[in-house]
């Protein structure tokens, strides 16, 4: 029996319309799907509704661990912050209506004011929870500052809210120069989701970006160790296949989804 719940991050089959993504995820054997707000907005622009999306999810029996993503909330103040929060609220309302548990909240690209970010994260959490969804702090390996597990943990700790969580991702752990061993510093309730992927040995770490991600098991990371660490801390929720490869986007999305699930299972259950 699997220790984790298998999920498809819909970026993996990006060009496909959102309702088709939901169908493909379910038919390929996933139990959950992460949805991007740009896909939701594209569906609405074509005359669709949030009810269409929720019905498709319910019909296919899929849960939604997260929607992706919120930006601008961390580093802003004053009128700019108010404007960014308005957009965050719009996206969080979408997350609520499609039944998401979390909404992913991304860091700024440059150096960050950690005290400000922690205060703003607590504010974002309080707003989101009142609406019915929990913002999850994501660190990104290719940004200047908030790029390791320790950074994400620092922000949620400083925020001082019991529902603070981080998003884990093997690519970002590697790209940020941190250590997967830091997973052991987390409590299971502090982990919103584990994105799942691998990275090649080349190009060098500091040159890698989203497009360089590969299927789990096709790269050089010790993913089995990362999963063992998750088990040790007591995390047993979602592993979500997240890739951003143009060659996969150009292929058969059903084959991409099936292959990804097979490779996740081979790593997690092998």
Which short descriptors sum up this protein?
8 strands, 10 helices, 270 residues, TIM Barrel, globular, alpha/beta, eight-stranded parallel barrel
Count of alpha/pi helices? 10
Structural class determined from secondary elements: alpha/beta
What Rg, in angstroms, do the CA atoms define? 17 Å
The whole-number mean of residue pLDDT values reads 98
Helix content: 40-55%
Multimeric organization = single chain
Strand content: 15-25%
Set out the fold topology.
Elements: E1 5-9, H1 18-28, E2 32-36, H2 37-45, H3 50-60, E3 64-70, H4 78-97, E4 100-105, H5 114-131, E5 134-138, H6 149-159, E6 166-168, H7 170-175, E7 191-196, H8 223-233, E8 238-241, H9 246-249, H10 253-269
Parallel strand pairs: 1-2, 1-8, 2-3, 3-4, 4-5, 5-6, 6-7, 7-8
Helix pairs in contact: 1-3, 1-10, 4-5, 5-6
Summary, kept brief:
With 270 residues, the chain is α/β, with parallel strands linked by helices. Helices cover 44% and strands 15% of the residues.
Explain what the structure shows:
This protein is an alpha/beta fold and 270 residues long. The protein has one domain: TIM Barrel (Alpha-Beta Barrel), CATH 3.20.20.150. 44% of the residues lie in helices and 15% in strands. It is built from ten helices and eight strands. Strands 1-2-3-4-5-6-7-8 form an eight-stranded parallel beta barrel, surrounded by six helices.
């Amino acid at each position: 029996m699997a220790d984790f719940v298998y999920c498809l991050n819909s970026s993996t089959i990006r060009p496909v319309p959102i309702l088709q993504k939901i169908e493909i995820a379910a038919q390929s054997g996933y139990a959950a799907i992460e949805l991007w707000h740009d896909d939701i907005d594209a569906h609405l622009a074509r005359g669709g509704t949030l009810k269409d999306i929720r019905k498709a999810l319910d019909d296919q029996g899929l849960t939604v661990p997260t929607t992706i993503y919120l930006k601008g909330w961390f580093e802003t103040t004053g009128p700019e912050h108010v404007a960014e929060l308005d957009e965050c609220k719009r996206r969080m309302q979408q997350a609520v209506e499609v039944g998401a548990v979390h909404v992913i909240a991304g860091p700024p690209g440059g150096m960050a004011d950690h005290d400000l970010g922690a205060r703003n994260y607590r504010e974002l959490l309080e707003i989101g929870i009142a609406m019915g969804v929990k913002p999850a702090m994501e660190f990104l390996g290719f940004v200047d500052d908030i790029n390791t597990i320790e950074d994400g943990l620092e922000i949620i700790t400083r925020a001082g809210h019991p529902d603070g969580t981080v998003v884990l991702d093997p690519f970002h752990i590697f790209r940020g120069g941190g250590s997967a061993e830091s997973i052991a510093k987390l409590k299971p309730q502090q982990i919103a989701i584990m994105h799942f992927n691998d990275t090649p040995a080349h190009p060098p770490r500091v040159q890698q970006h989203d497009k360089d991600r590969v299927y789990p098991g096709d790269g050089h990371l010790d993913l089995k160790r990362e999963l063992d660490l998750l088990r040790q801390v007591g995390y047993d929720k979602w592993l979500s296949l997240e890739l951003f490869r143009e060659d996969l986007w150009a292929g058969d999305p059903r084959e991409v989804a099936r292959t990804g699930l097979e490779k996740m299972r081979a790593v997690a259950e092998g």
